[in-house]
Amino acid sequence: MADKQISLPAKLINGGIAGLIGVTCVFPIDLAKTRLQNQQNGQRMYSSLSDCLIKTIRSEGYFGMYRGAAVNLTLVTPEKAIKLAANDFFRHHLSKDGKKLTLLREMLAGCGAGTCQVIVTTPMEMLKIQLQDAGRIEAQKKLMAAQAQLSSSPAAAAAEPAAEKRPTATQITRELLRSKGIAGLYKGLGATLLRDVPFSIVYFPLFANLNKLGQKDPNVKAPFYVSFLSGCVAGSTAAVAVNPCDVIKTRLQSLQRGVNEDTYSGILDCTKKIWQREGPTAFFKGAYCRALVIAPLFGIAQVVYFVGIAEFLLDMLPKRQA
């Protein structure tokens, strides 16, 4: 991590740009993760990441993989900016006379960053999940209708079920605000905290220590590829570690359910039902997808954030000979 002081506006801009680049690269995998986590036993539409993406392209087209991306691209800038800048803020105030932070203090700084980011993360995830999972629910209803028609009368099978018009993020937001107020956008806040705070507690200290291994001199920042690899390793490790919390959060924030799928009243109810009806392995649904999303997302984020977008571009240009 660079020791050079960077202004807060520069940190926010770098964090925002990092989020935009990262989300654009990995969003289809994130969509597959949401759909895999939401499907319950007996109602499985997809068997794997590749199966989910292939079926999504066939039924919804290429851009179907980017359902909900607009919400993420809009809100990921403040989310990543808050997360990365808050971690720096807490690290600075927890350090004593510029001395090296203890592991406990690094974890406390990560905890503070994770707590701050949920202001933006919760409504962003709430809207994104509805848009991402709409295609799965629609495909499931079509499949059930087709099976019912085939079992009742062959002639009825020719009738294609009418496609439902999918709501937009704006329509979902308006409906939630109208029916439940601002609290509607913050459904699943507790589960989001349960995921993001432990994630940051694991991620930031792990990244900082891995990144230091690539520093030849304590006063010189690590090369950009070291920051990238450190972000990838730390991100994927933290992502898998908190995946059970992510499954619970995804289930709680889903407003629409597929046929015969369970509903949940809270974190404990959701945990109990998943454990009893789907088994402990259900808590790791989509874990490898989440690792594939988080690894490059945070690898890119750390390169852009710590190197700085301007410095990164300058470093990639050939140096002029004196």
What does this entry look like structurally?
- The protein has 322 residues and is mostly helical.
- Helix content is 70%, strand content 0%.
- The protein contains eleven helices and no strands.
- The chain has helices at residues 8-38, 49-60, 69-94, 103-152, 169-180, 189-212, 224-241, 243-253, 267-278, 287-307, 309-316.
- α3 (69-94) runs antiparallel to α4 (103-152) and α4 packs across α6.
- The radius of gyration is 22 Å and the shape is elongated.
List keywords for this structure.
single chain, 322 residues, mainly alpha, 11 helices, 0% strand
Protein topology:
Blueprint: H1 8-38, H2 49-60, H3 69-94, H4 103-152, H5 169-180, H6 189-212, H7 224-241, H8 243-253, H9 267-278, H10 287-307, H11 309-316
Helix pairs in contact: 1-3, 1-4, 1-10, 3-4, 4-6, 6-7, 6-8, 7-10, 10-11
Uncertain ranges: 155-159
Q: Whole-Å distance between the termini?
A: 29 Å
Rounded radius of gyration (Å)? 22 Å
Please write the string of helix (H) and strand (E) elements.
HHHHHHHHHHH
**Main pleated sheet:** none
Q: What's the quick description here?
A:
With 322 residues, this protein is mainly alpha-helical. It is built from eleven helices and no strands.
